[in-house]
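batch_manifest entry 22 of 60
target: DoxX family protein
source organism: Elizabethkingia anophelis
requested by: lab member K.T.
priority: normal
notes from requester: please return tokens only, no post-processing; we will run our own comparison against the previous entry in this batch. if the run fails, retry once and flag.
--- input ---
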Amino acid sequence: MKATKITYYITTGLISINMLFSSYAYLTNPQLKWAFEHLGFPDYFRIELAIAKFLAAIAIWLPFRLVREASYIGLAISFVSAIIAHIVVGDDAFHTIAPIVVLAILVVSYVTYHKLPKTVVGKSE
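--- output ---
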């Protein structure tokens, strides 16, 4: 139980930090504007994704099961879409592996979340 709890908090913390930093970078880094264009996405999508990732980084900690589940689902869709987009445009391995690694961390966070008792992480309906 203790190892599961520690794993949950570490992986969820890593996901949240990653999402907060990427949200900030999406809005402030001109190279990421080019990266989204390179992937074929319109500029407004970069802004929408930054807002969604910021909200998910916060919502993943809220003690409401449905909100937390929606955050996990939204982030998973985002990472899978990133993997597909990088493969389709023929990006190098680094750009494809990065979202795979973050997706793996998200999966560990999700699995450990469901292994914890309801009282530990506030799994309310």
